[in-house]
């Protein structure tokens, strides 16, 4: 659409179609006249013709239009089109003159030519062409009346044809305006629909909830990136639901039997989050099509657990505070009793047992109080590569000779925002646990620390691996629960406290399943993160 002239010129698809129609119309007229004049029908149809001029003009009109149809295909300005229409008007006027004027019936060709040309021309040029056609009709009638007085009776017919040219031009202008208005409205609607489609695609791409559209045969028709991550898949489109996630298909079948019941949560894979599926029938997509919604309820469950633990922590802190004083008295009395010279060896052993368990109870009390009185994190910008090298060097000096830490870091620095004291507390707990399990299995402790950038999130990640006995699969879900321990000496608060400290620094501590030994990963926050 040419905005300067507000006319569908031939450089637009619609304008090119009209131009081809114009060429075809002129070629058809030229061919029809040439065939008519080559036979004997013209004597009856055109009794007033000038045979030589009309026949030569018809063939010239046909040949000229054939050349023009081959050369004029995509003019990008209105003036070549106006020149073409003006030349066509002149040729038709000459043929009309040779045929004897408006009485020949060829005057209607001028009105048709003016109507088609007005589709391609701007309004002023189109009306100018109609005016020229009207003047040509009147002038030819006047000129013929000078030599043939009988032609003076054709002035009314010439005037009607001139008015018809103007009426055709105005009607075409009105239709063109309406068509252009409809086209502009359609373009705006198309642009709005495209923007909405792009916005919907952007929303689906960045949604944390998984969205699937499943067809009647349980094949996946649509899947947003979040659904791929939640289900642990790289590609879902075109696959059957039972092949990529049997647990989700089972929930779908349960919902199909009773849509009023909420399906139970599922876990797509061993290390995946807990997902709550939802199903909605999409009748507009065809019979049997469904919209599947997947919400990660792990965080909700974790928040609920945190609320419970917070209440439990406050209760435990109060109880621990009340236990501390009598526990101190018991410990002090046992120490005094152990110092007595007349104490029998068996009683001295029992006294030692009292002291050992009193110390253990005191450690539990200290950990509980530490949970309830934990100070807020004070994040700092840390260069993890430099910080870890210093941590390993300082820790190695405090370890026994048969314990060894191995550190692997990238060539470039990785930064995060974290409280260094709380990070030190987390790593001390993980390192001591790993070395203890490694020593129990091999007689000497080894631990591997590897710092790298996570391939999926792009965030810094630290893995702490040992070569101990590992953690049984049935116990892995309970690792970070408070007071859970697999040993007889621990309090069961170390890993729980480590995860709490990581989360207070916007980091995440996870256990990664491993065949040989245990592996914990800390995924740190982005260095630009401030909240």
Task: Present the secondary structure layout.
Layout: H1 13-38, H2 42-45, H3 51-71, H4 78-98, H5 107-120, H6 123-147, H7 155-206, E1 210-214, E2 220-223, H8 225-231, H9 241-244, H10 246-257, E3 266-267, E4 274-281, E5 290-296, H11 298-338, H12 345-372, E6 380-383, H13 384-398, E7 403-408, E8 415-418, H14 420-442, E9 445-453, E10 460-466, H15 494-504, E11 508-512, E12 519-523
Parallel strand pairs: 7-9
Antiparallel strand pairs: 1-2, 1-5, 3-4, 4-5, 6-8, 9-10, 10-12, 11-12
Helix pairs in contact: 1-3, 1-5, 3-4, 4-5, 4-6, 5-6, 5-7, 6-7, 11-12, 14-15
Helix content: 55-70%
Number of continuous helical runs:
15
* Series of secondary-structure elements, N-terminal to C-terminal: HHHHHHHEEHHHEEEHHEHEEHEEHEE
Termini separation comes to 51 Å
Strand order of the largest sheet: 2-1-5-4-3
The percent range for strand residues is 5-15%
Would you tell me the overall average pLDDT? Answer: 79
Helix and strand content put the structural class at alpha+beta
Major β-sheet, in short?
5 strands, antiparallel
The low-confidence parts are: 1-6
Count of strand segments = 12
State Rg. Answer: 46 Å
Principal-axis shape? rod-shaped
